[in-house]
Design brief:
single chain, six-stranded antiparallel β-barrel, 22 strands, 19% helix
Length: 543
Amino acid sequence: MSDESTTPDPDPTAAPEPSERTQAHGAAAAPEVEQTGIIDLHDTRAIPAGSPAPAPSATEAQPPASAAGSGSGESGDDAWFDVFGGEHPTEGAGVPARADAAWGSDRADSLAEQAHRSAYAPPAPAADAPPAPARPGEAQASAATAAGATAYLGSVPHAPADGDPGPEGAVPPGGVALTDAAAPPARRGRGKVVAAVVGLCLLSGVIGGIAGQVAEDRINVAGSTLPDPGPGATQRPAGSVANIAAVALPSVVTIKVDGGSEGSATGSGFVIDAKGHVLTNNHVVEPGVNGDIEIVLSNGDTEKATIVGRDASYDLAVLKIDRTDLKPLTLGASDQVVVGDQVIAVGAPLGLDQTVTTGIVSALNRPVQPGDPGESSYINAIQTDAAINPGNSGGPLLDMTGKVIGVNSAIARVPGTSGSSGGSIGLGFAIPSDQARRTADQLIATGKATHPVIGVKLSRTFAGDGAQVVDEPDAVTSGGPAAKAGVKAGDVIVGFEGKRIRTPDQLIVSIRARAVGDTVSLKVERDGKELELQMTLEADPAS
């Protein structure tokens, strides 16, 4: 805001009108006006040009030599002091300095600034040293002073008369703005340097990490070899599927049978002792009775095999190879298995050797007739949902301790499909290990197995619930276990060892799951009454 009146200059020789300040010091002609520090343009008196300046007092600071000759008149004195100097005190911190004094009109500020500049002034150059370069604006100030113009320090105090502040940086007529040079703009190159340094650090970290990984993995940068897994890289916790499979797979074999005109077959088996005996299903080796049988070990070695013994009733067979360095699998106790136990099936389904599948025991004591229909094989099977397909036959069914609890033997098929088609539908069956152990021992010892019978003929046309003894004179074998227990033709057997019997096959597999010499109980219905009978199982004379 300009401190000059926009009204025409009055007669310079006229007496000055009393200002608002001088009226306030007189009689109470008007209320005192609050001093806000804002200049009222209507009450501001214009500074007359060329008025003589009063002589400075002894305590008044002398104007710098560089500012001599300033002012609006030719006398070189500041017109402001000529008019208003008498209204202000001449001593103390509040004494205003002349407008041409350094850095403003306040004497204290001027003295402080001079002290500051003296404290931080550069050392004076030597007499023979070249003159220091002039500060920005000093050449203009000197030229302005020589020309008789006022040199302003700080912002220019006067704007053009028309009130337009003018373009930024414009110098009004008669004066030179002595402002400090503007700070140079921030160097853009510095930000680029910082970014480059940060990027270099990140790149160094990445390169260092890659170099460390290369050294750790022992990668041959030339590309000739790949790193081998370190010791223990393939170890798994004991009891895990991976650990059990790693232990069992070397003991599981693939059996290839070439029966000539009888056909060929592929199945599975597993080592049961250190003498080279391999246990499998009878229906796997049956085509090779008069042909060739080969056993492929887990490491790919192929060995010729011979049949030690086989039993169609239990669908089990034992083979022998000329190897004594093989590790056998341990047979577990199938009578301790319960529904829901986790199991692992190992074998060569569809000829894919060393295949591992997992599941649970989904049922027990399931009567199954493995092999082709019409064969007299009956097993009281363990049912599992572990995937079992053609080629799994003869392979082990393991529990989570790695012991064999069954020999995979059959799968359920959708009605209407043939024996050579179809695959796993989640219903597979295994011979219980208790039965497999007993039969294998007999086959190794004598080449054949015995199985218990009760000495009765059962009807296949009975539509009722239970197993009916044929109502014929020779239906009960004379002197057999059933005859000794009191079973008669026409009786319906509805219970065996406390379990409900619903079909003839269920009674057969329940009897064959026992051992010769076992004493068992029967529940029979006769003339509408139920009878409890006891008998001792005997070996089948035909076996």
